[in-house]
Backbone:
């Protein structure tokens, strides 16, 4: 019975190719921005935003992941040179409803779990906010990093104890402020 479940689980989830999630066409820039997800057996996915030619159809693209057995370094370099934003999620609360949004025909924002995680400025041709591993950054600053994992005292609900509060204060709100300031 366990074998059937494992075989179905592994065959029902494709780990060899990136999963297309969303796209935004920006005609003024003659570009399509596409969000893909690399699924992982352990459940911690990577999210990538690619900048592609406006005529591309990202929903039809088959990009290999690093899990693929058919991987070549040359192919990897070609594909991942198109990535403008990327981040990895270790907290399952913020993998739902991934999307990309365009603000003012200038800003590409990656959203997951109702919060913004990354920002690319099309006018400056650069990422402004793009922490590859925000959970690790939070973890290095949280209460257990400060007081040790055996800490038994009272833990106030703040950004040192709650990843969502930390994301909102340190990534989501600064992204909104940057967009507002640079409109």
Residues:
């Amino acid at each position: 019975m366990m074998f059937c479940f494992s075989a179905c689980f592994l065959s029902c989830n494709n780990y060899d190719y990136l999963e297309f999630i969303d796209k935004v066409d920006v005609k003024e820039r003659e570009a399509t921005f596409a969000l893909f997800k690399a699924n992982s057996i352990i459940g911690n996915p990577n999210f990538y935003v690619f900048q592609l030619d406006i005529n591309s159809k990202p929903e039809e693209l088959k990009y290999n992941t690093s899990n693929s057995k058919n991987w070549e370094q040359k192919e990897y370099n070609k594909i991942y040179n198109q990535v403008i934003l990327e981040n990895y999620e270790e907290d399952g609360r913020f993998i739902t409803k991934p999307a990309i949004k365009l603000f003012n025909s200038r800003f590409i924002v990656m959203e997951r779990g109702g919060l913004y995680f990354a920002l690319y400025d099309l006018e400056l041709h650069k990422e402004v906010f793009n922490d590859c591993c925000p959970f690790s950054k939070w973890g290095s600053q949280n209460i257990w990093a400060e007081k040790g994992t055996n800490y038994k005292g009272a833990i106030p609900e703040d950004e040192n104890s709650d990843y969502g509060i930390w994301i909102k204060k340190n990534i989501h709100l600064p992204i909104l402020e940057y967009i507002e300031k640079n409109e």
Notes: Residues 109 and 119 are 5 Å apart (CA to CA). The first helix runs from residue 2 to 12. The radius of gyration is 18 Å.
